[in-house]
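Submission checklist for the structure archive. All mandatory fields must be present; incomplete records are returned to the submitter.

[x] Identifier: Cyclic lactone autoinducer peptide
[x] Organism: Anaerocolumna aminovalerica
[x] Residue count: 47
[x] Sequence attached
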Amino acid sequence: MKKLIFKTCGVVANLALLVTVLNVNASCMLFAHQPELPKGAEKLRKF
């Protein structure tokens, strides 16, 4: 059971990092609210 929990936590952490990277590199084009990014997310920005 512990192995399943650790695998699930690893998948969730990787998914969160992927969503953060995608959010850093995208901007809101409409008048919708874009939430603030976590501290340190600027390091993931691609120029």
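[x] Structure attached
Curator remark: The CA atoms of residues 24 and 37 lie 7 Å apart. The chain has a mean pLDDT of 77.
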